[in-house]
């Protein structure tokens, strides 16, 4: 689909109102199980970590408990690390990469860090394979006071209630071919805009924060990830998704200004990961492994620089 093809809902040039959003919502269907694929895995982690419910979402007949996984006994002398996944529920490896990190690697880092993991911020989006929530709101543009997205508001309240200073934040995402076939056209229709960016990078890339880019931290993540999967090359204009490269495999966004999950805290170190499961060079498992490598690469860098 291109920006010349009208979206099935709405009138070109007119922003969606309540009727169009209701029409969009009526077309969404449950395609997979949050309980079976996510909650069950989180429940299996309670032997070694604390699992706490920080909220609940109710959408129609569906109810979704929201959980964080965290270090059992927080040590004030250690830095606190936050890992988030599934703020865009359809981005599968973000959810399962966060869980896989806890399952396989997190205990190795407890000597150095307190760890908080919110593996699936948008469970309705996970089940319906959606970028938006049922109100046609993008949670990853909604991390600001009085957020209209329950998913974002509940996580912000959770982190605030924990009363910790987050030192590093890893927000796990992925890009799929449906970004061009569905999500970018839907955005253009909803907001009555012309979608100019149709680039889907083939491979992993990272997004730093314009105000706190931490060049070496981002580079360490890229170096770790390229041991397990390929890094996305820039397009013909030397950009990724329309943004100038900061370095190989990394661009920067103004995270707080855009209401991104990566701007949730004032962490000195923050990164948003992006993998591409539809690449002929990758698959779902490889993308999960890449997400874990991004986290461990960043943590290893932080440990090294603190010595």
From TrEMBL:
Residues 30-307 form the Peptidase M14 domain. SUPFAM superfamilies: Zn-dependent exopeptidases (SSF53187). Coiled coil: none annotated. Pfam families: Peptidase_M14. InterPro entries: Peptidase_M14 (IPR000834). Belongs to the peptidase M14 family. This is M14 family metallocarboxypeptidase. It comes from Thalassotalea nanhaiensis.
